[in-house]
Amino acid sequence: MRSIGGVLELVDYMEKYSPNAWMLNYSNPAAIVAEATRRLRPNAKILNICDMPIGIESRMAQIVGLQDRKQMRVRYYGLNHWWSAISRSFRKG
């Protein structure tokens, strides 16, 4: 929650000094900061990024006995890490 104020301050500086710039927001808590910026600075050019799905995929691969998360096909949506499907190919070779 503390990072919201700092991110908003950066957005304000960007809009003042570099109005064509985009912000890549990689701060935490990612979902909360993303929602705050969406509500409080709705016209800001921000791309909110969260790497949590990669960690979840890696752990899920371990759980189902795979060597690598790339052996799965994952359908992932949304701001709160909602998954609709995980599948695996059983091809030989």
From TrEMBL:
Family designation: Belongs to the glycosyl hydrolase 4 family.
Cited SUPFAM superfamilies: LDH C-terminal domain-like (SSF56327), NAD(P)-binding Rossmann-fold domains (SSF51735)
PROSITE patterns (UniProt xref): GLYCOSYL_HYDROL_F4
Membrane-spanning parts: none
Residues that, per the record, bind substrate: 28
EC numbers on record: 3.2.1.122
InterPro entries: GH4_Enzyme_sf (IPR053715), GlycHydrolase_4_CS (IPR019802), Glyco_hydro_4 (IPR001088), Lactate_DH/Glyco_Ohase_4_C (IPR015955), NAD(P)-bd_dom_sf (IPR036291)
Gene designation per UniProt: aglB
Name of the protein in question: Putative 6-phospho-beta-glucosidase, NAD(P)-binding protein
Pfam family, one: Glyco_hydro_4
GO biological process: carbohydrate metabolic process
Positions that bind Mn(2+): 50, 81
Protein species of origin: Escherichia coli
